[in-house]
Amino acid sequence: MMVKIDLFRRCSMLAFAILFFSLTMIGCGGAEDTKKRGYVTITVTHNGSPVTEGEVRMMITGKGEAAVGLLNESGQVELAEVVLGNYNVAVAPPELATPDNPAPEKEYPNLPQKYRDISKSPLKADVKAGSNEFTFDLKD
């Protein structure tokens, strides 16, 4: 009788472990990303001249969608697979502030302060399916 109870416990524990593992694996699969995306080219100028150093940041407020890229020597950034939507856009110095370096060493006069903070920047971009081109001329 003791052997039957012990065998029953082992089988029950094995069945529970298999069920738990199966449910865990189903949950780990995640949902397929079905968000529609577009291709974005942004040109940034300052008083008509290309801005060749800077980081372009795009974010949909409250949605968690974002895109980031560095400007090239033509003042452009190309971003692929950007989720469609209305974005706030900021252009900031490419140097990251760190505890050891709280302020960038270079001044970047062609990147006025009002465009650096994504929550305050007046720049907007409405990304639609396909190719999107935006030009931002930063004014002092």
Structural commentary:
By secondary structure, the protein is an alpha+beta fold. Helices cover 19% and strands 37% of the residues. It is built from one helix and eight strands, in the order αββββββββ. Strands 1, 2, 5 and 8 form a four-stranded mixed sheet that branches. The longest helix is centred in the first third of the chain and has 27 residues. About 4% of the residues have low confidence. Keywords: Signal. This is Nickel uptake substrate-specific transmembrane region.
What's the number of extended β-strand segments? 8
Count of alpha and pi helical runs? 1
What is the count of distinct domains? 1
Proportion of residues in helical segments? 10-25%
- Arithmetic mean of pLDDT: 82
CATH topology: Immunoglobulin-like
Structural class: alpha+beta
CATH class, named Mainly Beta
What percent strand? 35-45%
Distance between the termini: 89 Å
| Fourth-level CATH superfamily | Carboxypeptidase-like, regulatory domain
| Major sheet | 4 strands, mixed
Low-confidence stretches: 13-17
What is the radius of gyration? 25 Å
Order of helices and strands: HEEEEEEEE
Shape: globular
CATH architecture: Sandwich
Write the layout of secondary structure elements.
Elements: H1 2-28, E1 37-46, E2 49-50, E3 55-59, E4 66-70, E5 76-83, E6 85-92, E7 123-127, E8 130-138
Parallel strand pairs: 1-8
Antiparallel strand pairs: 1-2, 1-5, 3-4, 3-6, 6-7
Give a quick precis of the structure.
With 140 residues, this protein is of the alpha+beta class.
Describe this protein with a few key phrases.
single chain; alpha+beta; 4-stranded antiparallel beta sheet; 140 residues; globular; 8 strands
